[in-house]
Amino acid sequence: MLYYDVHTEITVDSPSNFFGRPEEYLEWEAENTLRLVDDILLRFPPDTEENIVRYSAFQMLDLVYHDTEAPNRPAVQNFFHRRFAGALEEMKKTTVNEGAMIWKLYNMSIVARTPSVTVCFDLVRAHSTRVEEFALQDEMMLPVIEQCDALFISHRHRDHADQWVAQTFIEQGKPVVAPPEVWEGEEIHSRITHLERVAHEIQILPVQSGGQELRVVIYPGHQGTTIQNNVPLVITPEGISFVHTGDQSNDEDFVWIDKVGEFHQVDVYIPNTWTTDPERAATGYNPALIIPAHENELGHVIAHREAYILNYRRWNVPYPVMMMAWGESFHYIQGK
Length: 336
Ligand SMILES: [Zn+2]
Fold this sequence. Notes:
Blueprint: H1 22-43, H2 52-65, H3 74-93, E1 100-106, E2 109-113, E3 118-121, H4 138-147, E4 150-152, H5 163-171, E5 176-177, E6 203-207, E7 212-223, E8 227-235, E9 241-244, H6 254-257, H7 260-263, E10 268-270, H8 278-285, E11 289-290, H9 311-314, E12 328-332
Parallel strand pairs: 3-4, 4-5, 9-10, 10-11
Antiparallel strand pairs: 1-2, 1-12, 2-3, 6-7, 7-8, 8-9
Helix pairs in contact: 1-2, 1-3, 3-4, 4-5
Bound molecules: zinc ion.
C-alpha cells in the first residue's frame, strides 16, 4: 500500500488521472508539493546546519513559486495564508525569556521579539502581487501589528512599504520609522518618524509609550543610486541587535558598510539575498548570524523572484547562514 499521511489534508480532488485537464493537474501538484513542504519544515526546523531535506523543500518552493501563475493559484494563496496564521498563533503564545524569537512572514517582513520588545521590519500584506486573493486580509494582519512595538520601513516600494500597515501602527501610538521619501506629499508623511540617516550614530527611539527605548542607527543606504533605503541597526534593551537591509544595492555605500562591525556588534543580519557583493557586505557587518530574505517576492517577474536555491551560492560566506521559509521562526541566543 502506498500512503503518506501528509496527503490527507489535500482539498483538491485527486482522481486517478487528469486527462484533458492540465490546469487542474498543475493546481493539484502545487497543493501536493506545498503540503509536503509544510510537513518537511515542521520536522526539520531552521538551523545553521543545513541538510538535504530542507534543501529539497526550498527547491520545491522555488519550483512552485517560479510558475508565472503562482500568486493566482489557490494552492499558493492557501499556503501563504496558513503559514502566516501559524506564525501569528505562535507569536501570540510566545514569551521570550532569553535571546530573540525571529519570524519570517513574507519577502522581507520580519518580526523579532526579545524579553522586553517586539520590533518588525518591512511588514506588508503582499499587495505587491496585485492579486487580491493572494494578499492578506486586513483582519489577518491586524493581530500581528498588535503584537509589535515599532515598524521600520526600508524604502518606498510596495513590497516593503504598506501604507495601511503604517497607518495602523500610528493609530495604535507606535512609531513607524522610514526614509523621508516614503509617502512624500501624502497626509501620513508628517506622522512618520524620520530618524537621521547617519552612519554609525546611535539615536534613541522610545517605544511602548516611553516604557522602553531602542537604540537605533539608520544607515543611509540606497537601492541603486537614487532611491533612499534605510538600513536600520536596532539594538534592543537587552543589547541584541538586528540589521535589516531592505533593498540595499549600491557600491558607494560600502564606505560605511565596510565599517559597521568596527562600530557596533551585529547579532542578526537580514540582507536582501541579492544585495551587492554579499561576501564583502557580510564582512563589513561581521554578524553572528545571517538570515537572507527577499526570496520569491511573487510581485516580481520570474527572473527577479530570487530563488531560495541561489542562496547556497550567494551566501557561501564565512559566517553562520540560516534560511527561512514563510511563517518559520527561529530562537536566536547570543553566543550559541
Ligand atoms: Zn524589494
